[in-house]
Amino acid sequence: MWHALIAVLADLWPLSTPDRPPLRRALGFLEWSVRPGDLQAASFAGAFLLGLTGVLTNALVGGTVGLVGGACCLVAATLALGAGRLVELLARARRASALGAAPALLTRATLRMRLRPAPEAAARFAGATAQGALARSLAGHVRRTANGPETGLNAFASEWAPWFPELERACSLVESAGRQPAADREATLDSARRAVLDGARDRMSTFAASIRGPITALYAFGVLLPLALVSLLPALDAAGMATSLSLIVLVYDLCLPAIVIAASVWLLAKRPVAFPPTVIERSHPDVWTTRWQAIGAGLIAGGLAGWVAQRLLGTWTGPLAAVGCGVGTALLVAFSPMQSVRSEVRAVEAGLPDALSLIGRQVERGVATEQALDRVADECPCATGTVFASAARRQRRLGVDIESAFTGENGALSTVPSDRAATGAALLALSAREGRPAGTALTSLGDHLETLDEVEQETRRAVEQVTNTLSTTAAVFGPLVGGATVALSAALGHGGPLGGTTPVSAVGLAVGWYVLVLAVVLTALATGLTRGLDRSLVGYRIGLALVTATATYLTAFVGAGLFV
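Structure (tokenized):
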């Protein structure tokens, strides 16, 4: 449908469009079958048509409806005009998420090099056993250089060097390690891994420092100041500067949300590296809720909340409570099971470093990998031990190899969607084939996973020091200030000592919608900056924020009204 719409709009634009290499690269990275020229022409034509529609709507309809409708069309026209830039920002965010897998990918290559110092085999192993855009890129370069003297690592590193130069240095070190004697190879491979980890740590620390100012400005001018100014509306009316309902709706429900969303997109696009969270698909057997169950729960919760609010707090609170509680409940029901699965995955990953190190040391002493796996499964009481025990039982009973015991049909990792666990399983399978030399690689993988977890936690804490205020503001502080200022405006304004022309129901609804928008946008921003834009994680946190923000806003309105 989108391709057809773009084609139709592109045909309507009579002028030629300039060539933009960044847009062409972004479309190629996103694998969208759209020509850059067609997208630009369609964006220009769409912006012109939407802008013309907005002007005609305001002129012909008039009043509040015409003003708001025209303004909505103009905002949509602005978005259409910047469609190319939005595509580039999306590609930039996707690249950051892909680069978060760089440490794991390089680890696979370096561990394979420890067993056999062949860079081409290491690149093939890393690209074939990992998932994601980075692994697909490496696998593609390996295929293209399969019949030549190159390994694919240099071309792969050159492709990603503009966004992560440390990856180019790490790949160069892996190439060099293949030509070095065994005595020097270990140190070179360790340097390759450290280059990627240090690069990710340094870039995220710099990023956390660079966004402190913009986030403070967003908090001040996007949340605190607009919500506090609500209490001044009666004073403006008393001073003769009446504020119409059209202006309030235009500012709080259109202009301010557009500014906050634009600032959030810009901040998310600036992130250099994003360690990807565990992706939980809806097809996972432990995800027991369906979309229709979530929608049904949302409709019931929204209807009940709207009815109660309308009966107890006033007519205008009903729609607000229905939307906030309904959408929030639907998101919670839809994504709560995925959070339970994610917690189980984290529990398995937490024990991987110790378990792999134990197996590695036993393999170094000459114990078979299968036997070492069985022993460690009994020694680890954690979730990792349970997974390893399941793989060991499956191997004994069915007579399959280690790889099938872990990742085959109904294998031990079939319900554990973890890239780290899959890396460990792949190396265990390789260890079963290579024997004692693989013990050192297993021990190194355990040490690397522990270091990777430390780096991930360190970078996350650095960003959370900046974004924690956003999460609290979205769910609690923003709604608290908004509800209190609306109550103050109602007490002083319409029917109060300062008079006023705008009823509290209109102000309460306009500000309430803005509070809900803040709950969605700021929560998505804080989650995206700290943990990446995983749909289930962002959806779950937005659901919590919406329910909390709705309850806080209405409670603050009622509570503040008792004291003013």
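Residues 97-207 form one domain. Residues 438-492 form the longest helix (55 residues).
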